Amino acid sequence: MPEMKTRWDIFCTVVDNFGDIGVTWRLARQLVAEHSVAVRLWVDDLRAFERLCPDIDINATQQWQQGVEVRQWSVDWQPTEAADVVIAAFACQLPSAYMEAMAEREKPPLWMNLDYLSAEDWVVGCHGLPSVKYKNVQKFFFFPGFRKGTGGLLRESGLLERRRQFQQSPQAQREFLQGLGIDRAPNAQLISLFAYENTGLASWLDTMAADSTPTHLLVPEGRILGDVERWLGLHGLKAGAVHVRDALTVQVLPFVRQDQYDLLLWSCDFNAVRGEDSFVRAQWAGRPLLWHIYRQDEDIHLDKLDAFLTLYTQGLSEPAREAISGLWRAWNAGETMTDHWKSTRKHWPELEKHAETWCLEQALQADLAAALVQFYLNWI
């Protein structure tokens, strides 16, 4: 794509700790690095941002991080010139003064609502359509997605090649894991666990502890830690803690920055993830995964879950499809995991092969950043 001398503003309201800022921070960096656009990222919670990017100064109203201008989005909004492209992430409401600034531009900006990721059928029909209008400024729907006719998924240039090289290098994996204080047992399956609170966890841990195959479970600091503590009968687990119960080793990891989290996912045999950003990164890892979807009112999140499972499990044998679908549904309902995990383990080779196939199929689509740039080029 041609290099563009355009200015982009991305607005992010941090709703669920890390998912919103995870997506927008990744997108902002990629737009700067691969498309040479100037990006201002407006964030209303720099403390959450700091967990993903420890270099952030949480008190600075303006700073530069990895080529991105990061601005603190506070209630005390200062007059600001509107950019050429304005992205409201996940339907966040822009400051009224900024909307006026958009309307005052001689050439109105391209205004897009970057929506949540969904595999539901209706997304294809709505992607790219005009939404509301503010004075002379038209807003458009922009949907990430898994099908042709959507905006695709965030994927940096060369990501899968870097992943392939890492996964083919036992030394690189060993050095990375040792850097986090992880001493992987030779025959243990390595599993990462990043999830919301879940009443089904205890049964899953019981099942892994009783398994004939040893499991090393890596738990980055986060909301699921309280359930891990209850299962261990402990309190105040911190990063670095290691506890062994029969065939299961549980190790608590520090919350890692985004690039390190990729390496963690690539190192593991199975990844349990949550939200949106981690969900996409686990798919690029090419390994079997378990998604804890963000709960929504009236259980509409379960429709999203089923839509993705319908798409993801295409090509699997019926027993393997039932196994992985059952596991995901039980996990998201907080139900007993024992039978579902045993069934999943039975179909492991097929599920491993399928995860890689799915990853490569998704990589055939344009990535989200490139799709956004192309949408802008078409618009002008």
UniProtKB/TrEMBL annotation:
User: Which reaction(s) does the protein catalyse, per the Swiss-Prot or TrEMBL entry?
Assistant: dTDP-beta-L-rhamnose + L-arginyl-[protein] = N(omega)-(alpha-L-rhamnosyl)-L-arginyl-[protein] + dTDP + H(+)
Q: Which GO terms describe its molecular function?
A: translation elongation factor activity
User: Which N-terminal stretch is annotated as signal sequence?
Assistant: none
The keyword Zinc is assigned to this record: no
Keywords of the record, alphabetical order, are: Elongation factor, Glycosyltransferase, Protein biosynthesis, Transferase
Keyword Glycosyltransferase attributed: yes
One of this protein's Pfam families, by short name? EarP
Task performed by this protein: Protein-arginine rhamnosyltransferase that catalyzes the transfer of a single rhamnose to elongation factor P (EF-P) on 'Lys-32', a modification required for EF-P-dependent rescue of polyproline stalled ribosomes.
Q: Which family does it belong to?
A: Belongs to the glycosyltransferase 104 family.
Q: Which protein are we looking at? A: Protein-arginine rhamnosyltransferase
Supply the source organism for this entry. Pseudomonas cucumis
Q: Which lineage ranks, top first, belong to the organism behind this chain?
A: Bacteria, Pseudomonadati, Pseudomonadota, Gammaproteobacteria, Pseudomonadales
The gene name on file is earP
